[in-house]
DNA sequence: AGATAACGAAACGATCCGTTTCGGTCGGTG
DNA sequence: CACCGACCGAAACGGATCGTTTCGTTATCT
C-alpha cells in the first residue's frame, strides 16, 4: 500500500498523486485506504516519514558547520532520490489550505522533522560552539534554506552553496556581543 | 475586480479563494475574469504585486543588516496586514502542482520578488560590506527565512528574531577567507 | 435605428476528495 | 457439510473547483 503510494509519487510526482490513482494501482478500494489513513495528507506524511528515516542518519563531523552541511546534503539527496521530496512538497502545499486537521498534522510533523538539526545543534552547544540563545535562529535559517530549495525544485547537490550556507549559519554572528573564542 | 479578489483573500484567506467566489461577489461572470487573467494563479499574482509594490519601499539605513531587517519587517507587515500574504501562500502552494504554465509564471515572478533584496545587497557591495560572491547565499537565506515564516503562519513582527537573522546573514562569514576590513 | 461587441448568468466536462452502497469472497460455526 | 457474518474491491455518489462553452441581454458605435 505504502509501496504503491511511493511508486506513484516517484513516477508522476505530487502532481499525479491522487487517492484514486493509488487505489487503482494497488488493486484496492478507496475505503480501504481511508480505513488506515484519515486523509490524503496522512498518507503523504507516512510515505515521507518511512522514506526519510530509512535514509538520513545523524552526521558526526566534529564541527557544527560540517554537521549542518552533511545533514543538508543527505536531506537533499533523500528528496532527490526518493519520493520523499514530492511527498513533502505536497504536504507543504496542502497545509496552505488552512484545514484544521492539516494544521494539527503539521504541528506534530514539524518538530519531528526538525529533530536531526536540533540534535546536531545540541552537540554544538555542548562543545561550546553555539550560544543556546541562537538555536532557534539556526533552525529557522537551516530549514528555510532547504524548504526554499525544495519548493523551487533546486534539490541538486550544490556542494559549494551548501557548504557556504553551513559555514555562515554556524559562524554565530547573530548575537549582539560575539563570544570570545574559548 | 482586483478589489474583489483582495476582499475575498482578506476575509477568507487562500482557503476560501475560488474563481467562482470572486465572480459571485464582483457580480461578474467567470469568462470575464478568464478574459484578463489566464488562470487563477495569474489573478493571485496580480493581487500580490499591486498590494506589495504599494507598500514596501527600499530602506536606507546605511548598513546591510539594518536594511535587511527593515526590508524583512516591511515585507512581513505587508503579508500580515494585506491580502498579499494569503496570495503568496496560494501561489507557492499552487506552484507545487508542477504545471508548466505555473512554472513559467514562477520564473517571471521570483526575480521580481527578489529585486528589493538584490538592490539592498547591491548597495552593500558598493560599500564594500559584502563580497559579490556571497550575494546568492544571502538572497537564499533571506528568502528562505521569510518564506518559511509565511508558510507556517508566523508573520508576526518578531523584532529580535528578525534582527538576529539580519545580523547573522550580513556578517558574511560564509567565505573561506574573510576579507580584511577596508 | 440597427449591427456589433462585450458581458452576466448558467450550464457543462473534467478532476478530485471523502463517503456510501453493493456484491462477492473468505473466515468461523452448528 | 451447510450456514452466517465480516471484510474488501468496485462502483457510484455528493460536493467542490477549475477552466470552457452557450445563450440571451445590454450597451456601444456607426
Description of the structure:
Chain A is an all-alpha fold and 182 residues long. Helix content of chain A is 69%, strand content 0%. Chain A has nine helices and no strands. Chain A has helices spanning 2-12, 19-26, 30-36, 40-53, 64-81, 84-95, 100-126, 135-151, 159-170. The longest helix of chain A is centred in the middle third of the chain and has 27 residues, at 100-126. The first copy, chain A, is elongated and about 55 Å long. The model of chain A is unreliable at 175-182 (pLDDT under 50). Chain A binds chain B through residues 13-15, 89-90, 92-99, 106, 110, 134, 136-137, 140-141, 143-149, 151-152, 161, 164-165, 167-169, 171-176, and chain B through 13-15, 89-90, 92-99, 106, 110, 134, 136-137, 140-141, 143-149, 151-152, 161, 164-165, 167-169, 171-176. The structure holds a DNA duplex (30 and 30 nucleotides).
SSE topology sketch:
Two copies of one chain form a homodimer.
Chain A: H1 2-12, H2 19-26, H3 30-36, H4 40-53, H5 64-81, H6 84-95, H7 100-126, H8 135-151, H9 159-170
The first copy, chain A, binds a DNA duplex (30 and 30 nucleotides) through residues 18-20, 23, 27-32, 34-35, 38-40.
Compressed to H and E, one letter per element, the order of chain A equals HHHHHHHHH
Coarse structural class of chain A:
mainly alpha
Largest sheet of chain A: none
> What radius of gyration of chain A results from the CA coordinates?
18 Å
Shape field of chain A = elongated
Q: Give a count of the beta strands of chain A, DSSP E runs of length 2 or more.
A: 0
What amount of the residues of chain A lies in strands? under 5%
Q: Quaternary status of these chains? A: homodimer
Largest interface: A-B, 41 and 41 residues
Number of helical regions of chain A: 9
* Mean pLDDT over the full residue set of chain A: 91
N-C termini distance of chain A:
53 Å
Low-confidence parts of chain A: 175-182
**What helical percentage do the residues of chain A reach?**
55-70%
